[in-house]
Amino acid sequence: MKNLKYLVMGTLFGVILTKSEVVSWFRIQEMFRFQSFHMYGVIGSAIIVGILSIQLIKRNRLRTISGEEIRLADKQYSHGTWLGGLIFGLGWAITGACPGPLFAQLGSGAPAAAVMILAALAGTWTYSALRDKLPM
Amino acid sequence: MLDFLRQPWPWYVAGPLIGLTVPVLLLLGNKALGISSSLRHICAACVPAGLPFLTYNWRKEAWNLWFVLGIALGGLLGYRVLGHPEVIAISAATVRDLRAELHLTDFSGLLPRELFALENLSSWRGWVFMVLGGFLVGFGTRYAGGCTSGHAISGLSNLQWVSLVAVIGFFAGGLLMTWVVYPLLF
């Protein structure tokens, strides 16, 4: 089954998010109040390792395990980049979770996570319906 | 080894491992790390309602749904099997501020019960924290074209200036909520 490897990667990712406590609402509050280095350390070191890895992939023209060329799409700018970013940020500080942690919280057995995921789906759906009317 | 896995992992262990997810997903199958897209795929699969933005072959992106299913399994494994502290050791200053400003007394678990217990859905505060909060996460991430994983980790790793704009937006929104809106709510 070709998707099994992504299930395994997701599981590892979920364990890392949980064990590093970035799935904690309290940690997110601590971050937005600048009262601990923890979250900045996690995000910052993840980005540094990510940058180095991508440079390594690009410079060595590495291919996927099935021999495909690795392609990285450029992110496209729109007004939504900052407007949507701002809206997500407001939600991030309320729920104390971005989408990844919401799924990890659900797995950890927090019932509120189910409500928040349903609400997030409603938010995504509403965006899809209003897309033509939003500044882009 | 098991004892090591059981304690909370420090940032310098967890951060690099999260960063390594980016190249591993690329090497495994040209997949760009990004989690909020799964919300779009679920909408497209369940309630496309003829909307152009939800009309596409979401099955081609099924890997993303397997990935988030894995995250949930990882949450179960990391929290219930590998164990967790009853109270997460956040800084004393945060505890003091949350007590004084948000009147929290219970610091156990991943989410403060006083705000996120399901019974709170009978009051406006529960709706703000669970429903409005979740809605803003789902709406904002799609409008911004990504979340913390897609923009902050994946996008910045690939030196995308667009992702930097998005991440500045994420932080501006979070700071606005924490420092301006919270004091009005409590």
At a glance:
Chain A: InterPro entries: DUF6691. The complex is a heterodimer of chains A (136) and B (186). Chain A has 136 residues and is mainly α.
Structural class of chain A: mainly alpha
Number of domains of chain B: 2
Biggest pleated-sheet summary of chain A: none
User: Kindly, what is the distance between the CA atoms of the first and last residues of chain A, rounded to a whole number of angstroms?
Assistant: 39 Å
**Largest interface summary:** A-B, 117 and 127 residues
What's the alpha carbon Rg of chain B, rounded to whole Å? 19 Å
Helix content of chain B: 55-70%
CA-atom Rg of chain A in angstroms: 18 Å
Strands of chain A, total number: 0
Identify the quaternary structure here.
Answer: heterodimer
Mean pLDDT of chain B: 95
Contiguous low-pLDDT stretches of chain B (5 residues minimum) are none
GO cellular component, one term (chain B): plasma membrane
Family (chain B): Belongs to the TsuA/YedE (TC 9.B.102) family.
Transmembrane segments (chain B): 12-29, 64-82, 126-144, 164-185
Subcellular location (chain B): Cell inner membrane
